[in-house]
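so my prof wants the structure for this chain in the C-alpha cells format not the other one, which i didnt know existed until like an hour ago. anyway here's the sequence
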Amino acid sequence: MRSARNPRAAPLSLLALVLSTCSVEDLDPAGKACPCSEGWTCVDGGCERGAGDADSDTDSDSDTDTDTDTDTDTDTDSDTDSDTDSDSDSDSDSDSDGDGDSCASPEVLELGAMGLEGDTRGAPSDIESSCYWSGGQPNRAYEVTAPGEGALTVELTLPNGDGDVFADWNGIVELREVCDDAQTGYCPLQWWHAVLDTFRRRAIMCTEASTDVTAIVIGLGLAEDEVEAGPYTISASFEDCPIDECEPGFGCFRAQNGGDDCTNPLPLPLGEQISGDTRELEPEGEGDDEEPASCSGGGGTGTDQVFAFDAPAHGVLYVEFDLPDGDYGGRISARRDCDDPATELFCGHHTIQALCVPAGPTYLLIDGFTDDEHPQDEGEWFMTADFLPCGKDQECRTAWCE
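here's what i got, hopefully its the right format
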C-alpha cells in the first residue's frame, strides 16, 4: 500500500485506508484506480507526486504551471489570466471588460493634501449618482477611511484648460457609507458660485467612529446626450470634532451668533467655520433693526445679526456663507458703514466672496427675507471668513493682491 506518499494520508489510520482504496472512477494507465490529492497522480494503484503527465511541473496536467487546469496561468480556473474568475480579463469581477467592478475594487484614497490623479475617460458606467441625474456616465470609486469622530471632506479638482469660469467637464464627487447603496449617500452642496465654482466638487459627511467610506467621481447628465468625463485630482481630509458640532455638507463648526444690531456688533472670527441662528436672539420680527440689504428685494424682515472686522491693512476679505435649510431666505451683506446701505460692498444668499477692503472696519450683516421659494425669514446659517493683507507695495485688485 503506497498511500503514505500522499500528504492527505495518515499511515496506520482508518483515513489512510480510505484514501488508498481504489475507485472505478479514477484509473491509472495500467487500469488500477486510487483517489489522489491535487498535484498527485494515480500510478499502480498508489499516488505519485507530479507523475502521469509530460511537463516539468509537479501537477497532473499538461501545462508548465503549478495548478491543476490546462491553461498556462497560475490560478485554478479555465481561462488564461491570473485571476480567480473564469473570464479572460485580468480582474476578478467575472465580467469581460478588464476594468474591475467599481464597488468591488475601489482604489484606496489616503487622507492628505496631495491627493490622487485620476481620469473617468474609459471608466465603467456601473454606478448612478444618488445626487444628480447621471445616466450612463463613466465613474470611478475610491475607499477612504474616516479615523474617528468628526468631519470627512473629499474634494474634486477639475481642470480649466481654456481659462474661463467653468471646468473642462462637468463632474462631482459624492460619498456613500455603502458603495452600491444609494440610500447611504452624502451629496455635495446643491449650489455653486459662478466664478469660484467649488461646492459641486466637495462632499462632507460626519462620522461618529472609524468608518470606511466610498467616494464616487461621476459625470453629470445623460451620456447619450454628452459624455462628461476627463482628468481630475481627488483628495481627502479629516477634522476632529464632536458629532453634535458637525453638520453634513458643512463639516465641523463652532456655534457663534452675531451681535443684534450695528451698535453691538461682535468681532468676526477668522479661519474657522461658525454657525448661528437668527431665531435665537430676538422674538420674531423684534430684532429687525437695520436697513435691508440690496439683495433682499425690499424685504429684510428677519432678525439681524452683525459682525465687525477691523482690517489691520488693505487686503482681501474672504467670506463663505450658506444655509442648511432651503426654506430660509437668509442674506449676508458687507458694508463700510454699518448703518448706511449705500456703502454696501456685496450682498448674497448662498455666496462665496473675495473682496478688497481698506484698513479699518468692515461690517457683515445677516438678515432674512421671504418669497415664494423661501417661506421663512429666520433660521440657521454657516459662515467662514479669512483675511489676506496686501504687501506694502501691493494693491488689492478684484479680489487679490498684486
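also thought this was worth mentioning. Residues 14-19 form the longest helix (6 residues).
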